[in-house]
Amino acid sequence: MSSKERPTLGGTRIKTRKRNIAAPLDPAAFADAVVQIYLDNAGDLELIAKSIESSDLNFSRYGDTFFEVVFTGGRTQPGTTKPDEGERHPYSVLESEPRREVIIPFVIYIQKILRRRPFLIKNLENVMRRFLQSLELFEENERKKLAIFTALAFSQKLSGLPPETVFQPMLKDNLVGKGLVLSFITEFFKEYLIDNSLDDLISILKRGKVEDNLLDFFPAAKRTEECFSEHFTKEGLVALVEYNEKKIFEVKLKDMKSALTTQITEETDIAEVIETVKQRVKDAKLPDVEVVRILWDVIMDAVQWSGKNQQQNANAALRQVKTWAQLLNAFCTNGKLELELMYKVQMQCYEDAKLMKLFSEIVRSLYDQDVLAEDTILHWFRKGTNPKGRQTFVKALEPFVKWLEEAEEED
Length: 411
Fold this sequence. Notes:
Blueprint: H1 27-40, H2 45-54, H3 63-72, H4 100-116, H5 121-132, H6 140-155, H7 164-170, H8 173-177, H9 180-195, H10 198-207, H11 225-234, H12 238-265, H13 270-284, H14 288-301, H15 310-323, H16 325-331, H17 335-351, H18 359-368, H19 374-383, H20 390-410
């Protein structure tokens, strides 16, 4: 039998690729249809939501237009927040009163819409971003409504609306310079903290990548810690002021610790190190107690621990104490600060197994280098309040204390 292909009577069929027929864009007709739903239901958001659910409107194509109608009552001109031609309704977010109990139904309404059509979250982001980038085009009262809506949206966890959608678009120089951003964010903070904790707010700020840059909301001329504290204290947000002060304080401590670590690692001249610390303490207004704690941490962190045996570790630690005793002495200027240093030594020896048996030797070395006074050591021995490892350390220090007391009696 032949394997040749037999001829057919039908001829050859040429396959043709079908072209996608693009429907003409008509956002105006879509907007008019949504507006009509609002008007037919007299602004009743429950009924409007049901009508929208049962409608066959093309939300996937006109999602941005839908949210323009929700917020402004109608379609806006492309690229702006200004009204465009066409039907409008009086039941929008911006036409409502600037009160949370009036605006929260809009948040719940949008939540219902997004549950049925989750793809619309991207359109909500688009419209929010556009509005927030154009705050100057809104009246003061309208900006307040937007701030309240935004705060309630986060408070109600509106379908995962990302914080960066809100905070990042606003940080434009012209908006910040006019004070519009500060006004908006202040209203946002106040509204959000009614139902949520400061920790919840900080979490949102972190996700919005602005937690470390709260001063960026202020005009350049007012971008100071003093202005921050004054403004938010006046607005009743004392907890936020305290948080920011703590945050700034931690940054200053971290910066000082980093600079000091570099100098000690490089074995910079002690006199130069002392001057550096004094200048940083002055500039950052750091408490003396924190300075003593940092000094001890940095000095001991720089020890080269061999780990081979206890005696080598002891020698390394005592050598470091002797080397930097002058630095400690420059800042342990009274009994309270000396006692704080003893507590730091106590805690480190308690928490670090290789230093557990070195407490008495370190204290003796600090005494020999004139860092710790006799009265301070005796006070710690008799009345120390930190219980961590205290019994062990008191027992280890007994021979040295006995020697001090005998010397005191002879004097």
